[in-house]
Amino acid sequence: MSSKNVFLKFFQGNQPKGAFGRRVVGERGSNDLPPGKKGGETMTPDRHYEHKQHAFDSFCKKVLKCEAYNGYREISRRQSREVAFSELPEDSMEQLASYDRYPWEYTSFPVGGDVILIEDDRLAEALNALPQDGRDILLMYFFLDMADREIAKRMNMARRTVNARRQKAYRLLKELMGGDVDG
Amino acid sequence: MVKSASTWAALLPYPIIAAAVRGEPDAVNTVIRHYSGYIAVLSTRTSYDVHGCPYSYVDEELRRRLETKLIIAILDFDLN
């Protein structure tokens, strides 16, 4: 006997029966499907319902898990943006603060339909000392941000008149407040 | 640990699933109850108190959010 034959004999004898030539189809068995079948033909409606039960279970769990993930992501995003009130920096605190205004703290100047409140006593006194039309023009120009043309329309004057009176009032105001007139 | 019968019967019966997908309130409630445990686990958060000791609690806001999402999602489930 040649050594080759001995090996062959040994090799064949050690194999489990029928290990070759079989296709493993699923965990339920290794049988080949009968010819002409695709599989699943023997599945009863019960099996379909069972499949749907499992599918529904998996579906719900996935939905919940993904939604929980979304929720936690939202929470962590909020936490990264949120700052405790006590840890706010000074300047952003100032934005939140509101100061009470009392009528004796400011002087009010009615101009047309608007009322302008001026807190600075020195400025208010000087404005009071100005003639009426010059004061109105100044207030409209500086506090209501109106252009000369708009002021002219409201006061029934020519635009140039408004300009001239504004400059005159401005110079006078400067003088009253002790500023350098030509500055 | 011996699992209770309800734990073993982990799957909802098919008729209830079908009814829930159609949007029947009783069936939807059954589904919500069935998954309430999982929802509670998912919405459990751990926080630390002033001494740094961890304690976990169920975030009610998150729990309601998950329940709402589940109700909406059930209606979209494809039964066929």
Descriptive overview:
The complex is a heterodimer of chains A (183) and B (80). Chain A has helices at 3-13, 45-81, 90-96, 121-129, 132-142, 148-155, 159-176, and strands spanning 107-111, 114-118. Chain A has 183 residues and is mainly alpha-helical. Among the domains of chain A are: 49-87; 107-177, Winged helix-like DNA-binding domain superfamily/Winged helix DNA-binding domain (Arc Repressor Mutant, subunit A), CATH 1.10.10. In chain A, strands 1-2 form a two-stranded antiparallel ribbon. In chain A, β1 (107-111) and β2 form a beta hairpin. In chain A, α5 packs across α7 (159-176) and α6 (148-155) crosses α7 (159-176). Chain A is elongated. Chain A starts with a helix and ends in a 7-residue tail after the last helix. In chain B, β1 and β2 form a beta hairpin. The longest helix of chain B is centred in the C-terminal third of the chain and has 15 residues, at 60-74. The model of chain B has no long low-confidence stretch (mean pLDDT 85). Chain B is built from 5 helices and 2 strands; from the N terminus they run ααααββα. The relative contact order of chain B is 0.14. In chain B, α2 (14-22) packs across α3. Chain B has one domain (14-76). Chain B is of the alpha+beta class and 80 residues long. The A-B interface holds A 49-50, 52-54, 56-57, 59-61, 63-65, 67-68, 71-72, 75 and B 10-14, 17, 31, 35, 38-39, 42-43, 62, 65-66, 69-70, 73-74, 77, 79. Chain B: Residues 14-78 form the Helix-turn-helix conjugative transposon-like domain. Chain B: InterPro entries: HTH_dom_conjug_TS-like. Chain B: This is Helix-turn-helix domain-containing protein. Chain B: It comes from Holdemania massiliensis. Chain A: Residues 121-172 form the RNA polymerase sigma factor 70 region 4 type domain.
